[in-house]
């Protein structure tokens, strides 16, 4: 299938002004997603995954946040230039988002049917009766048993997995959901339900040609769902490649650490979480210009403290950002 670019983030840096100082949450990050593709953003807690997603959706609270530089091009327009009204129209139509705990996005006082129908009424100008019919159809599409009954349920009457299906249904209420951002969508669910939700996302992605930006710290989820992977560390992209390139030929010391810390033979299985690598993530308040992984890296050299390395290509579609790249590639290390 021919690749067509849907979203590209160019050189994004996001800071937060806090009482303790400036938190440099995301640094010079570029990424792109093709139509229909699943890109996974992985990395330990606090590395900037959610801030990246919220930058796309323009949900960074400003203040304290500042998007210091960069562009977010979506279907040819820079989302950062849109007014709040224009952006509001994009959210829930062209770009939808599902979160770890859907209860926070569903309104507890309205029935599921009312909330879902509302999306059709707002975004597609439908009459209430038609919108309810559509809502029922959509609940069927996300494989909710007895959709008619669920229309009359309140969010608290559903299980976590069912609520997540409702959120996915809401995201699909748009005629062309170009991009779905899923921030830890299955973390709160047990393993069986998690697998069902991932299968559902994969099916829907095929049938509506929706792209998925998947944020997770679960390598099992990445292996099962992603086409491409970006590994982030302390606000920086350190490695990028296809899911096969990252799992079978990881090159960056951080990615290697992540994969080595998984139980053996468990690389591709579900429910494997990123285990801690020796050392701790640096304080984003005091980060200098160097590589943020320097203090935990076995290959540390003095220059790692001074500047962040340029991109080095491993092979087509696979890159790392590390001063030792040429040694890794020659096989000297
Ligand atoms: N509103 C805010 N004010 C101050 N700092 C913030 C704010 N939002 C995020 N940050 C900081 O930005 C950094 C990146 O946070 P982010 O939530 O993107 O991490 P993450 O990789 O998604 O982690 P997790 O997996 O725990 O959600 C963190 O150090 C966080 O404390």
UniProtKB/TrEMBL annotation:
Bilayer-spanning residue ranges: none
Record-linked Pfam families: ABC_tran, oligo_HPY
Any one GO biological process: peptide transport
Q: What is its main location?
A: membrane
Q: Which SUPFAM superfamilies match?
A: P-loop containing nucleoside triphosphate hydrolases
Where, subcellularly, is it found?
Answer: Cell inner membrane
In what residue span(s) does the ABC transporter domain sit?
7-259
- Source organism, top-level taxon: Bacteria
**GO cellular component terms given for this protein:** plasma membrane
Recorded GO molecular functions are: ATP binding; ATP hydrolysis activity
Membrane-related topology note: Peripheral membrane protein
Kindly state which keywords UniProt assigns to this record, in alphabetical order.
Answer: ATP-binding, Cell membrane, Membrane, Nucleotide-binding, Transport
Q: Where along the sequence do coiled-coil regions lie?
A: none
Q: In its keyword annotation, does this UniProt entry include Transcription regulation? A: no
What the entry lists under NCBIfam families is as follows: oligo_HPY
Q: What is this protein called?
A: ABC transporter ATP-binding protein
